[in-house]
Specification:
single chain; alpha/beta; 5-stranded parallel beta sheet; 3-stranded antiparallel beta sheet; 48% helix; 15% strand; binds BIS(adenosine)-5'-pentaphosphate
């Protein structure tokens, strides 16, 4: 099973992708996570991507499509993929078709998380992750069970993303409206798009996604 999770910044793509990994043994392919790892490691890709990401703009299609191809090659052929934050442009959607076809894979579902953009600013500016294992939390919506201690790995160190400030979030949303939302019709024409109410609580969103995959 290969799935695209589509939605603006803060729609819950990463949150739901992590749950799909746990429930279905799929692999989460997040171009945002790959780029942040490249920035942290100071690779040539990371050096190119850093300022673009901090401004909330899109990194080049060639870079992200190459990252996705490499990740798929590193996976077992029998493991399904969740594309989280990719594709984001028409050119990336075209590349993904070629990448999948050349590896004998096909897309099964495109799940759009339908959200109210104004509420997303609060979601994004309040989120943080465990610095050790990457588990996501939120100041209001998902706090650790024991304050200051990660539920999953027990670490006491947390971090926030440099692009999670209001000004950059607004730019990221504008990029989504201008470049990413227009790719939906490509998949609608194939009859593989399903919409989920991304403003429902996290468990309800998960249940809606499970119903689509059943
Ligand atoms: P990326 O990392 O992909 O960021 P994004 O698309 O902006 O998405 P987010 O990670 O911000 O949001 P999400 O939908 O995953 O929400 P989450 O689950 O965390 O990209 C970052 C940058 O990298 C881009 O700006 C660009 O520069 C570059 N880039 C990446 N991919 C690229 C590509 N393909 N092409 C070009 N450039 C690319 O949820 C948010 C918060 O809300 C969390 O705290 C969560 O706990 C909470 N939450 C989630 N669901 C709910 C709910 N139902 N109710 C209440 N709270 C919820």
């Amino acid at each position: 099973m290969n799935i695209i999770l589509l939605g603006p910044p803060g729609a819950g793509k990463g949150t739901q992708a992590q749950r799909l990994v746990e429930r279905h043994g799929l692999k989460q392919l997040s171009t945002g996570d790959m780029l942040r790892a490249a920035v942290k490691a100071g690779t040539p890709v990371g050096l190119k991507a850093k300022a673009v990401m901090e401004a909330g703009q899109l990194v080049s299609d060639e870079i992200v499509s190459a990252l996705i191809g490499d990740e798929l090659d590193a996976m077992g052929a029998g493991t399904g993929a969740i594309f989280d934050g990719y594709p984001r442009t028409a050119a990336q959607a075209e590349s993904l078709d070629a990448i999948l076809a050349s590896r004998g894979r096909k897309l099964d579902h495109v799940i759009e998380l339908d959200v109210n953009e104004d509420a997303l600013v609060e979601r994004i500016t309040g989120r943080y992750t465990c610095a050790t294992c990457g588990k996501g939390y939120h100041d209001t919506f998902e706090q650790p069970k024991v304050a200051g201690t990660c539920d999953k790995c027990g670490s006491h160190e947390f971090k926030r993303r440099p692009d999670d400030n209001e000004e950059t979030v607004r730019t990221r949303m504008a990029e989504y409206r201008a470049k990413t939302a227009p790719i939906l019709p490509i998949y609608e024409a194939r009859g593989i798009v399903a919409r989920v109410d991304g403003m429902a609580d996290m468990d309800a969103v998960t249940a809606s996604i499970e119903a689509i995959l059943a």
